[in-house]
Amino acid sequence: MRIDLEKLKKEALGLISGVKDAKALEDLRIKYLGRTNGELTKLMKSLPKMSLADRRKFGPLLNSLKRELEAALENKLAALKAQSSKLKASIDITMPGKKVSLGHLHPLTMVEKEIREIFTALNFSIVEGPEVESEYYNFDALNIPKDHPAREMWDTFWLRQNEQLTNNKKQLTKSEKLKVNSSKLLLRTHTSPVQIRYMETHQPPFQIIVPGRVFRYEATDVSHETNFHQVEGLMVGKDINLANFKFVIGEFFKRLFKKNVVIRLRPSYFPFVEPGLEVDVKCVRCGGKGCGLCKESGWLEVMGAGMVHPKVFEAAGYNPRDFRGFAFGLGLERIAMIKYNIPDIRLFYSGDLRFIKQF
Ligand code: PHE
Fold first, then answer.
1. Catalytic residue among 188, 190, 197, 229
2. Which atom of ligand 1 is nearest to the CA of 195?
3. Is position 190 annotated as part of the catalytic site?
4. How far is the CA of 205 from the centre of ligand 1 (A)?
5. Is 266 noted as a catalytic residue in this protein?
6. Rounded to an integer, what is the distance from CA 218 to the centroid of its chain?
7. How far is the CA of 177 from the centre of ligand 1 (A)?
8. Integer angstrom CA distances of residue 58 from 29, 49, 71
9. Side-chain-side CA neighbours of residue 236 (13 Å)
10. Is the pTM above the cut of 0.85?
11. Residue 248 catalytic?
């Protein structure tokens, strides 16, 4: 019997040394040493059928070849493993890593924060009030009586629970009716009610700002939202006047827009101030020449303001002869839109990350 063991050995060792991965190595193991069809296994299974002389000759040879192949397979496997962990260790740590995207403050939050900081530096305190407000604080105490046409300046979300209460009022006594009426609830249409709330519990002199969310029952468009934010201002003392107002507000806008701003006061009307004013700043983009931002007018309307009306002091429990003060109210979105050149107020609440991520 003639078997070319030398050839088999050469071929097997050659293949084993050329193998690139563990799977291919395992295939080779099966090819030669597989329990049923391995080439070497088959040879060993044929030993009992050989002549005694052949058995004596091939038995030891086959055994030693088997051991040799086993050792070669084992070594190769170890080498492959070492190689792959070396690959892992050789990852280039100087390559830029995966970017972790961090969240950040909403543009409105950023502007509000800045406004709080500026007024704090000007010695104003920061005060807040409820978003669900009573008709009394939102209107009556601010010199806006029930049937006054000025109520139409603020389209109001009334709370339904109160509608039911007032609809049932036929069965109520007169004093009960009064109570229900004065506790009629609404979503505040401006931050001005906090003027009354603050003055009810504090004595002048003081100066406060009131940042907060307000609501109006309006159709939305590029400059109107049902839900937006205001910052109310109120400074009261013995002899506060419009010159004080102009200085404070000039200082505020200078710090906010980081440049000198020209301010213009125009007569206007709000029931809770007298005189009432509209404040314009010379367009911070075009400097007054006229551009898209100021709608070619050269001016940006930025807030309503005025000297606190004596009726408001009265409602808060002050003697109007003792004190004077100024009040103002600005729209936070409007300021942010000017500052960041944002074309549509609805973007603030869109939840669109392409918008948010620009800040
Ligand atoms: N509350 C007014 C508004 O929402 C703004 C304002 C505040 C005007 C204070 C004058 C004084 O329109």
1. 190
2. 9
3. yes
4. 21
5. no
6. 25
7. 30
8. 21, 12, 20
9. 25
10. no
11. no
Give residue 260's identity as a one-letter amino acid code.
N
What are the pLDDT digits (tens) for 326-344?
Answer: 999 999 999 999 999 999 9
Task: Supply φ then ψ for residue 10, to 5 degrees.
Answer: -60, -45
Find the radius of gyration of the CA atoms of the chain.
42
Could you give the angle at the alpha carbon of 59 between the alpha carbons of 55 and 60, nearest 5°?
A: 135
pLDDT of the residue at 2: 64
Q: Which residue reads 């939050």 in tokens?
A: 109
Q: Residue 343 Cα, ligand 1 centroid: separation in angstroms?
A: 23
Low-confidence ranges of the chain (pLDDT < 70): 1-2, 161-182
Q: How far apart are CA 201 and CA 317, in angstroms?
A: 9
* Distances in whole angstroms, Cα of residue 322 to Cα of each of 195, 209, 271, 312, 314: 17, 22, 20, 13, 11
Which residue ranges have their beta carbon within 6 Å of ligand 1? 190, 192, 232, 270, 273, 304-306, 327-329
pLDDT digits (tens, 9 = 90+) for 92-120: 888 888 888 888 999 999 999 999 999 99
Residue type, 299: W
How far is it, in rounded angstroms, from Cα 92 to Cα 94?
5
- 138 C-alpha to ligand 1 centroid (Å): 11
3-state helix, strand, coil in the chain (%, to 5): 50, 20, 35
Q: Please answer whether residues 277 and 306 qualify as being in contact, where contact means their C-beta atoms are separated by less than 8 angstroms.
A: yes
